[in-house]
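Moderator note: this is an archived Q&A kept for reference. The question asked for a predicted structure of one protein chain; the sequence and the answer are reproduced below.
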Amino acid sequence: MVVDDQLMVRAGIAAIVDAEEGLDVVGEAADGQSALDLAARVRPDVVLMDIRMPGMDGLTATALLTAAAPETRVLVLTTFHQDRYVYEALRAGAAGFVLKDVLPADLIAAIRVVADGEAMLSPAVTRRLIDAFASGGLAGPAEPGRRLDGLTPREREVLVSVATGLSNAEIGAALGITTGTVKVHVNALLAKLGVRDRVQATIAAYDLGLVRPNS
């Protein structure tokens, strides 16, 4: 589902998505409230959500949508790249954040990534976000009850690798384990930390002091 207040932007995105095999646009909306109403009817797997729209903005709509339908993944698509928008979008429950100048192929890849249950941020945004959290510019106190004590030594190793931006294949090669085993460890540490995905696990790793800038 595509949510953007600009008709031409919606039409362009919809055309790109509909042209891709295996992907279909099931609806379009011009504001946050319309997006919530439409999503309740069409039950999309992925929502491409603009941030700045008249009436209810995309951040508010994202928070309400992910609370009402956790199975729906929200990929925030915007021209804005300031850290605070990334932070607010992720805290609202977004699974990804890409800029509107992204290449069509990269947009399709991002949709597939979040549809598969992973998190997706453009590399430039990821780097800024991690740097901001690492320097204390965005991070707050760790959530009550979130501790590293419950992680096994191997899960800590995997978490550090995730926080440095390594893929499952790269983590497996570095630790001498299979990609499947890495996935098992990632799923376990996500559950123990109470986070949705790898991006929020990275934030938790910095919040809890497991990794530091340039470590």
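Archived answer notes: The beta strands are 2-3, 28-29, 46-49, 73-78, 96-99, 120-121.
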